[in-house]
Each structure stands twice: as structure tokens, then as C-alpha cells.
Amino acid sequence: MPSRLNPYLSFDGNAKPALEFYKDVFGGTLNLSTFGEFGQSDDAVADKIMHGMLETPGGFTLMGADVPPGMEHHPGNTFAVSLSGDDDGELRGYWEKLSTGGSVSVPLEKQMWGDVFGMCVDRFGIAWMVNIAQSVG
């Protein structure tokens, strides 16, 4: 298996609906494992997600989990998940789904470097950047 780099998102108890939402956006196969499946019998966390992984037909991998018991959840604005490519229809479709119910900080429109670009925060508080490369010529 080759090495890979992908986002791993932390959630404060809502990892399952968040990862299911991303599956609706991108398609693919979602595998979820709860704390209970790995022996954590505390009712407060037994059904929370210890590890989730979404693998899409397009080659995306997105992982996430609920913050484990005893750890604090500190959401921040120090990262964003970036989607880029030249398939205008596909990327606009992702944008529409991700931005619905969230907030748009940069509208998806042509930028000074020539590409179509936008930034939003989805309804789960995750920041996304979408860049649609424009063909030259």
C-alpha cells in the first residue's frame, strides 16, 4: 500500500452524522467503528465514533472521529479541506452540497488568478476550499 496523506477531522459527538453527510456529498464507502465495538462500555461514548473512513470513487479519503473520553475538543480555523481539479460540474456539485446549511466566506466565482474559487464552512464547522482550474486557451 502506498503512503497517503488525508484529512482526519475531530468532532464533539456528531462524527456519525458529519461523516454520513460527506458520504452524501462525495459518494463512496463509509466505514464506521464505535468506541463500544472496541470495548468501551460507558453508555455516554459506546455509540460514538472511534474511527470513521470515507473512501470515494474519485480517490478521496476522509477520516474522522469523535473526541475520545478525557480529551477536550478545540475546533479552530487553522485548517481547511481543499478540493481542486478541472471538472467544473463535479466541483460545483460538491460546493453546493457543502455550503448548504453552512456559511460562505468567499463566493465560488472567478478569481484574479483565473480559476473559479470559493471558501465555505459546512454545517458541521469544517472549512472547505474549492478551486476549479480553468482551461488555458
UniProtKB/TrEMBL annotation:
Glyoxalase/fosfomycin resistance/dioxygenase domain: which residues?
Answer: 5-130
**Taxonomy, superkingdom:** Bacteria
Transmembrane stretches, by residue range? none
InterPro entries xrefs: Glyas_Bleomycin-R_OHBP_Dase (IPR029068), Glyas_Fos-R_dOase_dom (IPR004360), PhnB-like (IPR028973)
Q: Which Gene3D superfamilies match?
A: 2,3-Dihydroxybiphenyl 1,2-Dioxygenase, domain 1
CDD domains noted in UniProt: PhnB_like
PANTHER family in the record = PROTEIN YJDN, PROTEIN YJDN-RELATED
* Name of the protein this chain belongs to: Glyoxalase/fosfomycin resistance/dioxygenase domain-containing protein
- Source species, please? Streptomyces mangrovisoli
